Amino acid sequence: MKPVLLRPWRDSAFRILALAVCIAALSLASIVLLRAELEQRFIIRSAEMLGGDLMLVGSEPPEASQLDTLAALRQAQVADFASVVMHGDEMLLVSARAVDHHYPLYGQLHIAADRFAPATVVAQGPPPGEVWVADQVLDRLGVQMGEPLHIGRLPLTLTAVIRQEPDQGAGFYSMNPRVLLHQADLAATGVLGPGTRVRHRLMLGGDAASITAANLAIEGTLRADQSLRTVADAADRTRGPLHQLTLWVSLGVLLVSLLCGAAVFLATSQRVRRRARLAALLRSFGASRRQVTTRLLGEEFVAVVPAAILGTGLGISLILLVRQLLGWQGPLAAATGDWIAVLAGPLVLWLAFALPRLLSLVRVPAVDVLGGRLDTHPVAGALELAAALGAPVMLAALLTGSLEELGQLLLLLILLGALLPALLWPLLKALDVGSRRLPLASRLAIRRLSRRPGLTLPLLASLTVAMAVLGLAGLVGNQLLDDWRKRLPEQAPNHFVFNLFEQDLPPLQAWLNAHQASSQPLYPIVRGRLTDINQVPVQDAVTKENDDAQRALNRDLALTAIQPGQTLPPSNRVISGDWPPQAGGVSVEKELAHNLGLALRDQVQFVTSQGTLTADITSIREVDWESFEPNFYFMFASEGLAGQDITWLTSFWLPEGDGARLAALLRDLPHITVIDVRALLDQAQALVTQASHATALLAILLMAAALLVLGAALLGAQAQRGQDNALLRTLGAGRPLISRVTWLESLLLGLCAALGATLIMLAALYPLAQRLFAGALPWSPWLLLPVGLGLVVTLAGVRLGARAQRHAPLALLRQA
Amino acid sequence: MTVMPGESVAITGPSGSGKSTLLGLLAGLDAPSEGDILLAGTAFSSLDDDARALRRGERCAFVFQAFHLVDDLNVLENVMLPLEIQRRKNAGNIARQWLERVGLGHRLKHFPTTLSGGEQQRVALARAFAVTPRLLFADEPTGSLDHANGERISSLLFELNREAGTALVLVTHDQQLAERCHRQLRLEDGRL
């Protein structure tokens, strides 16, 4: 390496600076790439839930002209309708789906050769002449594989059992079992006549640009019954681990940028002090400002670049390793914009935080520097810092694509960054004024902080931000993991069973006990169809164009009632009204309430097998449909379903084992329906494991960056502390006095930073909870972390102070 | 080498000859690798750091070329500092008197960075004499000042020294300053 590259490395401040740039590059590269990977998986998952990148829905098939317009995209056509299947004399109401040979466009279709056979993945739906059905159809109709099933007037051969559909989302709540057939057979069944309610879906796949173009092109051609659904619509409805993690990682980019920027800023401040004499000498020898800038900046730049390259290389390697460990296939997901951020980000960050400080070398008159008067004016220092803060904000804006999601948090951080010194500085000044009658050690400690704004404010701000970020990383990371663990506990129910009668409950319990299966609460179920809202027939109360509402109205809904002593299920959250529903009351799911225009105190009426059922809406609930728990649109008061035909529903966790156990249960209770959700559960659990690993990686990166800032801040202040102590010793102060001053100063610094960090954490708690957890964050011991870190800062300050005391005072005074 | 009470001794010599190191050793700021330094007839250099600091505070004072005032203390607080370290009563009044004496009574609340070099060295002199030292060490006290200010400071130094009857050990390159001392010692090749 050429000497010019090595020269800056002799300075300890430069080594900290280089380490900060290296960690910034490492963190940015790994977080940006990780974010791209997660985002891609999130989009793929949303597309899988939707069935395509774009979907054209209508009650009639799409027009030929529309198909022509969309010819450049990959297409799959699906028709969903309610129908009846027959086997001999047995009939069963089913959710039928007719698919073409392009289905599924995204995701995987899992089928099995028999009721308890292992599942395999297939790329297409059933060929013409065949039918595939859900487990329940076999149980309810007693049909065997290879036997014919009639749909309408067409007999189709049963060839497979459906285990998992790509676009079912949380679809296993549907009361009617799924039946898949080929579209070519649809006309021959004769079930679709005029007036039949069918939902025709054209699923479209392609790259982002062609999807946007198609969206624009088709929008103007939509019939009254048609609508477009995008991935964003699907993504909006889910708050799963991937969504939470993507948001948290986006915030992580901002926080790591801020922290590394702070470390760069602190290290450059020291660097400037050490390079000031050279700059002044160059100026006094007649060098122009430009020459001085070029020389000093050039040297720094050339020396910083290898650190940035090393960090970026390590970051990319880390992500490649993570991909390998998590079994993520395919090329790296990062787009051009991401790569620009990865490659240019560390240098932009360095320039933003270091440049204003370095330029101060040529702004300050040379004579001031040579005369030892280099102190930056606090206002100029604050302006430099404010200008530098723009870089991570811009970087975050670039990386998040839009600031919509994190805008509130970002605004909060900027406000706090600006307000914090304004809040803490008067506190220190007040301490200064109030300290006149305090002992010498206390006065000296307070004045070292209160009378050096140029040193204290950046130090305090950096420590505060670092502590707040460490606390938030711990709090949020831990809460996310906890959230996910609660959502999917180790023994999450992997089977759902319904159509249980009262007399079935003891044999079911005996079977559960015999197989070490743990069961969840029992829910009473009454099938009912919503007929009236506020005594107005629903068909008049709800607009015909509202497709979602129509779908809710044209099928039986599973109504349940709260059992005495039963609490609100963890996957539910009451967003308005009172819980639990009192006599005559019912609680409604939020999205359905929105689609049907239902509000608190509205009256709803259902038709059931026993007549009508009426209740007033007393609460509206948000439901996490991705939880593996039974969830319901309507939950009545405990006696609300009295006198109705009640069956029971429960879920249970069954340990791994052979299918004979379930077969035995179904032999004893042939009328019950058991749904196996192990495949879905495994997929969700794998996702949670991956998200947990990613969260741990982010926490490590954030901690490394925060510790770097703490180190840079404390080391930066060490030289000044050493000099202060040397002078005190020269004036006759003994070690006990100096130790007391160091202890008190470090304690005051640590506690002030802890106070600031706690304030930031408390202020960030609400928007974070809203964004990441769609609710409130409980009190957590992590909120005490800043106080603990304040004590760590105190101890570190004392230790560094003790190290400074080991030097003979004469040596330190000569260095000055 | 012996310095008697009230005596002033100049140590001169070429750059790098070890003048400042010798001064630091005499003042107990550093410990010698061999030999002994006695202060008022009792052991000094063989004491530990804290004991040396205590005795230095009680009996000695220091004036530096670079002034070494505490930037975050005002002028009055700077002069009070060594008095407070020694827990002397009336530190504020004593400091005020000495600052009046060096002509800075009107700048008590100013901070060092707002003073000129000459004014800073006058504060340093007030700080040094405020503790009524038996022995004053001065390391190039006029080295950072222009000629006129240097003259004024050296005159003040010798005047205060005479009034207080303090022994003075002065390191300097300035021959004129050295000649104002009772005795001159030259340090060359490690020998006096």
Q: Which features would summarize this protein structure in a list?
A:
heterodimer; A: 816 residues; alpha+beta; 4 domains; 6-stranded mixed barrel; 6-stranded mixed beta barrel; 23 strands; 55% helix; B: 192 residues; alpha/beta; Rossmann fold; 5-stranded parallel β-sheet; two-stranded antiparallel sheet; 7 helices; 7 strands; 41% helix; 14% strand; globular
Characterise the protein shown here.
The complex is a heterodimer of chains A (816) and B (192). Chain A is built from 24 helices and 23 strands. In chain A, 55% of the residues lie in helices and 18% in strands. In chain A, helix 8 (241-284) packs parallel to helix 21 (678-730) and helix 14 packs across helix 22. In chain A, the strands form two sheets. Chain A has a six-stranded mixed beta barrel with strand order 2-3-9-6-8-7. In chain A, strands 14-16-21-18-20-19 form a six-stranded mixed beta barrel. Residues 169-173 of chain A have low confidence and may be disordered. Chain A folds into four domains: 1-52 and 240-405, no CATH class; 74-205, no CATH class; 407-490 and 678-816, no CATH class; 518-653, no CATH class. Chain A is of the alpha+beta class. With 192 residues, chain B is of the alpha/beta class. Chain B has one domain (8-186): Rossmann fold (3-Layer(aba) Sandwich). Helix content of chain B is 41%, strand content 14%. Chain B has helices spanning 19-26, 49-59, 75-85, 91-101, 117-130, 147-164, 175-179, and strands at residues 8-12, 38-39, 42-43, 60-63, 135-139, 167-171, 183-186. In chain B, the strands form two sheets. In chain B, strands 4-5-6-1-7 form a five-stranded parallel β-sheet, with helices on both faces. A two-stranded antiparallel sheet of chain B has the order 2-3. In chain B, helix 3 packs across helix 4 (91-101) and helix 5 packs parallel to helix 6. The termini of chain B are close together. The model of chain B has no long low-confidence stretch (mean pLDDT 87). The chains are: A alpha+beta (816), B alpha/beta (192). At the A-B interface, helix 14, helix 21, helix 22 and helix 24 of A face helix 1, helix 2 and helix 3 of B.
